[in-house]
Amino acid sequence: MKAYLVTIGDEILIGQIVDTNAAWMAQQLNLQGIRIVGKMSLPDTNDGIQEGIKYALKNADLVLTTGGLGATKDDITKKAIAEMLGASMVFSQHTFNRMEYFFQKVNRTVSEMNKNSCFMPSNAQILDNERGLAPAMWFELPDDKIIVSMPGVPFEMQHLMSDKVLPKLLSLGKFSPIVHRTILTAGEGETMIAEKLNDFENRLPENIGLAYLPSLGTVRLRLTARGENAKKIEQQVETLKTELISIIPNIVAGFDDDSMPIVIGKLLKEKNLTVACAESCTGGLLSHLITAVPGSSAYFLGSVISYNNSVKTKTLKVKKSTIDSFGAVSEETVKEMVAGVLKMTGADVAIAVSGVAGPSGGTKQKPVGTVWLAVGDAQNTITAKLGIDRGRAKNIEYAAHSALNLLRKFLLHQILS
Q: CB 31: neighbour CB atoms within 10 A?
């Protein structure tokens, strides 16, 4: 089965909101072996909606739309689809009863506008929405074509997709098994990794593909296998995953849904270690990434945001002479920041970051993008220098993710030694 994703709304076209719905739907459909052949965004106009859906139907068996199902005048998706399919609009007493029950619970009465939103295309199968007022609609067309129209509110759409639409689609039995295996790598860019995997990639069977999914500081490698025998392709992709790891063992950080903060948490728990941070240019982002992981209180003790040099000297006890001689952005300073936050917090391991985020503040010797990192414990400290300017926001983000990878390397050395 081939699918086309259609998001409806002027707010998407003008960039007022970001279309996250299509990305989420694509992920869910792909996991079920449904091939995505296209995506489009449409305006809140009758002609625009009809022309877009007609185009999608020419290219796919399944068209999934989101948006335009509310009670306001710009919510015209239902009427546009009904007109396109030659259906009339009929009042859904079932939908009205559900709406009335909801309003009664909050001591409100159903307005005329809300009541009017209960008119549905006569040929629609209604899929109840337990997260909101607007239900989804399922249309079965000639030639086994299907249109599913859902609300644009992300959490409502996700509920309907997960609990109603996907089970109904899977019951049709038209899908071939698909298997994914994802490997998280850190420390090398996409091109460098691709060069190392060139021979491996050229030898892949026709039913298996390798995708590169780069982000700041990491690259995800996703093996995707398709076939008729689920057990066979599971074994096939596992064998290839093992072979791939053997080619780049030093940069493999995690698997499947692992992120670098999750990997760090696992390593700290494995060794029963605690960590603290001393941040300058990252301004707390590093600590935020670590504490975004549930249960991080088991290993994260705290952080010092030493953005001003006075905090480095007074709180972290970095020597003033060190900053005067080498600068706040230096290997010597981040080493002393590590020592200071270790002493303050009693953590087993600490990370320090200091850099020139930009857009100003750089010098010929230390241009914008220069960042020094340090990770250490009571016995040993390792450092690394970054030197790529990607703009202030990306410089900060890249520094934080690179610091996590340096911590990963430090912890692995401890575990292996």
A: 12
